[in-house]
Amino acid sequence: MVDCAALRARLAEVRDRITSAAGRAGRDAASVRLVAVSKTFPAECIRAATEAGQIDFGENKVQEALQKMDQTAALSLKWHLVGHLQSNKVRKAGARFDLIHSVDDAGLVMRLDEAAQAAGRRVDVLVQVDLAGERTKHGVRPDELMPIFAAGRNCRAARITGLMLLPPAMDEAEAARPYFAALRALRQELLSRGVDGSMLSELSMGMSHDFEIAIEEGATLVRVGTAIFGERTHV
C-alpha cells in the first residue's frame, strides 16, 4: 500500500532542495525540470505524485513504462526514458515517450524519427555522453558527437534538444561536480562549433544523491527516484 502522505512530503522536500540549489547558482528554479524516476514502483505511486503536481516521470525499461502509461492513461503526464534504449525497442519508444535521454548513436536518432513519424507524433531526444570512459556504461565520446547532431538536423519527427550524463558512481556527491561542469563546457564547445542552440537547450544530469550539485552546474533536467519514492526493494 502506498503511503501517499509520505510520498508527497518527500516530493515537496525535493522541490525545496531544487529551489535552494537554483538560488545558490543565481538561477530561476523554474528552469529546472524534475523527472520523478518511478522505475519498479507501481502506478499507484505515480498517481500519488501526480496529485501533488508532478507531471514528468522517468522509466528505465520500455516494457515496464508502457504498462504504466496504459494504467495512467487518464492523466496528463510526460514520460521520459532514462535507461538505455535497446535497438529492438526503438519503434515502441519512439511512438510513446515524450523525451528519450539515452541516445548514443546516429542510427538510433534516425530510427526514432521514423517511429515517431509512423505514430504521427514528435519525440525529443537527448544525446548520452560518456565523459569517463566507463566500459560498463553507454554513451558516446565527445569526439564522436557531430555525426549524431548531423543526423538530427535531417529528422522531421525526432528532435535533439540536449545532452545527458551519467557520471561514475561515487560516495561523495561533490566528486561528481567536475563531470557536471565538463558537460556544461562541452555544450559551449558544441555551440562554438556551429551546433544549433535548439539542439543543446537541455542538460540532463543529477540524481537523488547529487542533483543539487548538478543544478549548481547548470542542469535543466534532474532525474530523481529514491528521494521521492523511497528505497527500491528490487531493480
Query: Radius of gyration, rounded?
Result: 17 Å
Helix/strand/pairing category? alpha/beta
Number of strands: 8
Cα-to-Cα separation, first versus last residue = 19 Å
How large is the count of helical segments? 9
Any idea what the shape is?
globular
Low-pLDDT stretches are: none
Percentage of residues in strands? 15-25%
Order of helices and strands: HEHEHEHEHEHEHEHEH
Strand order of the largest sheet: 7-6-5-4-3-2-1-8
Mean pLDDT: 95
The major β-sheet equals: 8 strands, parallel
* Helix amount: 40-55%
Write up this protein:
It is a single chain. This protein is of the alpha/beta class. Helices cover 40% and strands 17% of the residues. It has nine helices and eight strands. The chain has helices at 4-24, 43-51, 62-71, 90-96, 106-119, 146-153, 177-192, 211-216, 226-229; strands spanning 33-37, 56-59, 78-81, 99-103, 123-129, 158-165, 202-204, 221-224. It has an eight-stranded parallel sheet. Strand 5 (123-129), helix 6 and strand 6 form a beta-alpha-beta unit. Helix 1 (4-24) crosses helix 2 and helix 5 packs parallel to helix 6 (146-153). The longest helix has 21 residues, at 4-24. The two termini are 19 Å apart. The relative contact order is 0.16. The model has no long low-confidence stretch (mean pLDDT 95).
Keywords:
single chain, 235 residues, 17% strand, alpha/beta
SSE topology:
Layout: H1 4-24, E1 33-37, H2 43-51, E2 56-59, H3 62-71, E3 78-81, H4 90-96, E4 99-103, H5 106-119, E5 123-129, H6 146-153, E6 158-165, H7 177-192, E7 202-204, H8 211-216, E8 221-224, H9 226-229
Parallel strand pairs: 1-2, 1-8, 2-3, 3-4, 4-5, 5-6, 6-7
